[in-house]
TrEMBL record:
Name of protein: ABC transporter permease
Cellular compartment(s): Cell membrane
UniProt keyword list: Cell membrane, Membrane, Transmembrane, Transmembrane helix
GO cellular component, one term: plasma membrane
Length: 392
């Protein structure tokens, strides 16, 4: 019975029942918006984290003491280079620098600009990087969060660092990293390695950690064990460990939202079922009239399916569109802090749009099917009885 008259009557019913559908429509949009927002931000952050970590070294070696990371002797580099399969062993300098005016911290990263791997990574981060000009005097490259803080306190061209020895060093700003890299670099200040050592108070013959690559995947497990045996209290962190950590963290937070969503949607469906179970006399008259003019139970159910499917479909679509705008246009305020943690600096990060169509289809099925079931069951019960007698 899918003819022009059917569709005309369908839209007439939607208009007639607009007040009844409005509250359900709004609640549905909110529920879909919340879950799809969590889904969008989780999948996009996971993809961005994996892309970021793919450019990192295979292993990072750290020195531990009393459960804390301490500086490591540079002499260990020679020992690590002797391990079979190990390539591109480099020292890294990093640490926190306390910004007294706001009692906040920057992350200082010291880089050897003559190392090939570091040079490539920096050129990806900074489009203006001219190595010869950068090394003419003491320059730094800063993240967008650091730039905002410097501008606030009128450090527009340079900043005076105070070393642990009480000396003051002026360093000029060479470039600012854009928001597309702020997941990694929001609070970061990149300095030449020797200058970073002075600012952080790292001994000349020590470094923060040691990074290395093992090109052959089959040799990585053995190389990790051999490196650990080279010195006492060494911790070797693999790139795969870091990926697993971040993915598990995002999956854990997504799971918490999913549990809350399931509880909320079940409560919503229960309320919906109870509401439609108490069909009033006008609804019964409506069904009685349809049966009187020759509509079968199948036709009545088909009408209700189409009517409520349109409500569910449009509420679902609007919820998805709003969540896309919230995550990828408005940059997910509040929700971003929940997933990434509350940074000590203002955080502005442009998520890479990633639409998991398979997850959206799954969400649509698990939302629309229960939605239609809890409405059609009471309607079917009313349609199968003698409605004319029941309304007399």
């Amino acid at each position: 019975m899918l003819n022009k008259s059917f569709y005309s009557f369908l839209f007439l019913m939607l208009f007639t029942h607009r007040s009844k559908h409005f509250s359900i429509f709004i609640i549905s949009i909110i529920l879909v918006f919340i879950l799809s927002s969590v889904m969008f931000i989780s999948t996009s952050l996971s993809k961005d984290i994996q892309y970021t970590l793919d450019s990192q070294p295979d292993f990072v070696v750290q020195k531990m003491k009393a459960g804390e990371v301490i500086d490591i002797d540079l002499s260990l580099i020679d020992k690590i280079e002797q391990v079979y399969g190990v390539k591109n062993v480099t020292s890294r300098v990093y640490g926190k620098y306390f910004f007294k005016p706001l009692k906040q911290s920057f992350t200082i990263v010291g880089v050897d600009f003559f190392e090939e791997q570091n040079s490539k990574n920096l050129k990806k981060l900074s489009k203006k990087l001219d190595m010869s000009k950068f090394l003419e005097k003491e320059y730094m490259i800063i993240g967008s969060g650091v730039k905002k803080l410097f501008d606030k306190f009128k450090y527009e061209k340079s900043y005076f660092f105070t070393t642990p020895l009480g000396e003051s060093i002026e360093v000029e700003i060479y470039d600012v990293l854009d928001d597309t890299t702020s997941l990694l670099s929001n609070d970061m200040i990149i300095l030449p390695k020797e200058l970073a050592k002075i600012v952080l108070g790292v001994d000349e013959y020590k470094t923060s950690d040691i990074a290395l690559n093992v090109p052959n995947e089959l040799e990585r497990a053995n190389a990790k064990v051999e490196i650990i045996l080279k010195d006492d209290n060494l911790r070797v962190i693999s790139k795969d460990d870091m990926k697993s950590y971040y993915l598990n963290l995002f999956n854990y937070k997504t799971g918490l939202f999913l549990v809350l969503y399931i509880v909320t949607i079940l409560t919503f469906l229960l309320i919906l079922y109870q509401r439609y179970s108490m069909i009033n006399s006008s609804d019964k008259k409506e069904i009685a009239i349809l049966k009187a003019v020759g509509w079968s139970i199948k036709d009545i159910l088909k009408l209700k399916v189409f009517e409520n499917f349109l409500v569910a479909f449009f509420s679902f679509s609007i919820g998805i569109i709003l969540s896309f705008i919230y995550i990828f246009v408005a940059k997910a305020p509040f929700l971003m802090q929940i997933f990434l943690g509350f940074s000590n600096l203002d955080f502005s990060y442009e998520l890479t749009p990633y639409i998991p169509f398979g997850s959206i289809v799954t969400l649509f099925i698990f939302y629309v099917v229960p939605f239609l079931c809890v409405i059609l069951i009471p309607v079917w019960k009313i349609a199968t009885v003698d409605v004319i007698k029941s309304i007399k």
